[in-house]
């Protein structure tokens, strides 16, 4: 499956090159450069939250693998808010004592709540608070969106809870299996006004059941996470073309810290790594400059791509390809740029037995392509 990703991108970025597709396909199928790099990153560095030693180590491993394959790369530093996860605890003390499996949302800040009464506020919309006094209390919020209502971001729900007087917000994850949902409390890097956590579906459902049955629930919450401004970096590998125009091929390299970040987004990072390696091995001389960029800080607010666009605002960028959890590639989304569809159809016509026939033009945001829109 990974070979399909490599083929997908190499065909995309070398439209102007004289390239033997059979040679490309054979070379891609015969090697596993991306897998080997990703294995080292996940095994030795693990989760790569921006600002952590694991993030730094992961980048160094990636940089060394590029060098070992004959590719030079360089860091571009930027300044942004950085969130550091501390030792955070959510402990139910009534009706029984139990430390819950809870994950602080990014930009939660230091706080200590003792014997906080817990209240269930449905999905956390403004209307859901009618007749409920949450002043000085901890609110439990379902992330299930009621039919007929606009989707509400967690940051909006946190703001409503704060304005109603709540002292903390706990979100019930929709996915089962004892998983918490990592995420941000806002996209601006501002310290949250109240601490916010993700709970597992199972424990969150238990709290909901207790409260709906009229039981009193009390908790102690400790948050030691914090935000501060710091310096981070993206990693860039450039193939100079004959034109000033360039194509940016990006994937975010950072991940959340509670796992190894293999899928989100080690997957995309490995794909563009292998694409760069094979372009180099095949001696491709592109018409337009190709810039591979491993962005940092996507998970905590798209910081790396935002800062890249700011730093390169005077560059002539012809196109940007973003690989965020590429999964099984079966086509293209031109993101509303419908004039690109003929070129995309030309590409898919060369894909041989690989099915890239699904073509879409649906714009969406919340990943590293967002700041490249003009």
Task: Give a description of the structure.
It is a single chain. With 374 residues, the chain is of the alpha/beta class. It folds into two domains: 225 residues, 3-Layer(aba) Sandwich (Aminopeptidase); 139 residues, Glucose Oxidase, domain 1, CATH 3.50.30. The protein is 29% helix and 26% strand. It contains nine helices and 15 strands. The strands form three sheets. It has an eight-stranded mixed sheet with strand order 3-2-9-5-6-7-8-4, with helices on both faces. Strands 1-10-12-11-13 form a five-stranded mixed sheet. Strands 14-15 form a two-stranded parallel ribbon. It starts with a helix and ends in a 14-residue tail after the last strand.
- Largest sheet report: 8 strands, mixed
User: Total strand count, please?
Assistant: 15
Shape type: elongated
CATH superfamily of the largest domain, called what? Zn peptidases
- Detail the poorly predicted runs: 1-11
Strand order of the largest sheet: 3-2-9-5-6-7-8-4
How do the SSEs run, as a string of H and E? HHHHEEEEEEHEEHEEEHEHEEHE
Query: Which range best describes the helical content: under 10%, 10-25%, 25-40%, 40-55%, 55-70% or over 70%?
Result: 25-40%
Attribute tags:
Glucose Oxidase, domain 1; alpha/beta; eight-stranded mixed sheet; Aminopeptidase; disordered N terminus; single chain; five-stranded mixed sheet
Topology of helices and strands:
Blueprint (H helix, E strand, L loop, with lengths): L1 H12 L7 H9 L3 H13 L7 H16 L5 E11 L4 E6 L3 E2 L2 E3 L6 E10 L17 E5 L11 H10 L4 E5 L23 E4 L1 H12 L5 E6 L2 E14 L3 E10 L9 H20 L6 E8 L7 H9 L5 E6 L8 E3 L7 H8 L9 E3 L14
Parallel strand pairs: 5-6, 6-7, 7-8, 11-12, 11-13, 14-15
Antiparallel strand pairs: 1-10, 2-3, 2-9, 4-8, 5-9, 10-12
Helix pairs in contact: 1-2, 1-7, 3-4, 3-7
């Amino acid at each position: 499956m990974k070979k399909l990703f490599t083929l997908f991108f190499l065909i995309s970025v070398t439209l102007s090159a004289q390239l033997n597709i059979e040679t490309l396909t054979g070379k891609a199928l015969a090697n596993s450069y991306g897998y080997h790099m990703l294995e080292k990153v996940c095994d030795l560095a693990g989760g790569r939250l921006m600002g952590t030693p694991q993030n730094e180590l992961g980048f160094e491993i990636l940089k060394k693998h590029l060098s070992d394959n004959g590719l030079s790369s360089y860091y571009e530093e930027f300044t942004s808010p950085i969130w550091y996860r501390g030792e955070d605890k959510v402990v139910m003390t009534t009706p029984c004592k139990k430390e819950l499996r809870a994950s602080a949302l990014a930009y939660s800040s230091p706080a200590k709540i003792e014997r906080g009464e817990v209240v269930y506020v449905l999905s956390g919309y403004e209307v859901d608070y009618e007749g409920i006094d949450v002043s000085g209390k901890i609110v439990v919020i379902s992330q299930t969106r009621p039919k007929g209502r606009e989707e509400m971001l967690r940051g909006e729900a946190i703001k409503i809870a704060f304005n109603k007087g709540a002292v903390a917000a706990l979100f019930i994850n929709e996915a089962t299996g004892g998983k918490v949902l990592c995420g941000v409390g806002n996209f601006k890097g501002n310290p949250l006004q109240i601490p916010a956590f993700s709970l597992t579906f199972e424990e969150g459902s238990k709290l909901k059941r207790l409260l709906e049955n009229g039981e009193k629930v009390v908790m102690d919450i400790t948050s030691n996470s914090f935000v501060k401004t710091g310096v981070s970096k993206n990693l860039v590998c450039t193939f100079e073309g004959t034109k000033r125009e360039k194509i940016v091929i990006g994937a975010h390299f950072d991940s959340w810290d509670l796992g190894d970040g293999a899928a989100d987004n080690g997957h995309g990072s490995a794909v563009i790594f292998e694409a760069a390696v094979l372009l180099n091995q095949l001696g491709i001389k592109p018409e337009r400059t190709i810039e591979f960029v491993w962005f940092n800080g996507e998970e905590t607010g798209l910081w790396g791509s935002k800062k890249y666009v700011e730093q390169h605002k005077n560059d002539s960028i012809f196109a940007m390809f973003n690989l965020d959890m590429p999964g099984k590639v079966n086509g293209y989304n031109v993101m509303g740029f419908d004039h690109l569809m003929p070129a995309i159809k030309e590409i898919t016509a060369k894909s041989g037995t690989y099915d890239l026939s699904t073509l879409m033009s649906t714009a969406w945001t919340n990943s590293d392509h967002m700041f490249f829109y003009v």
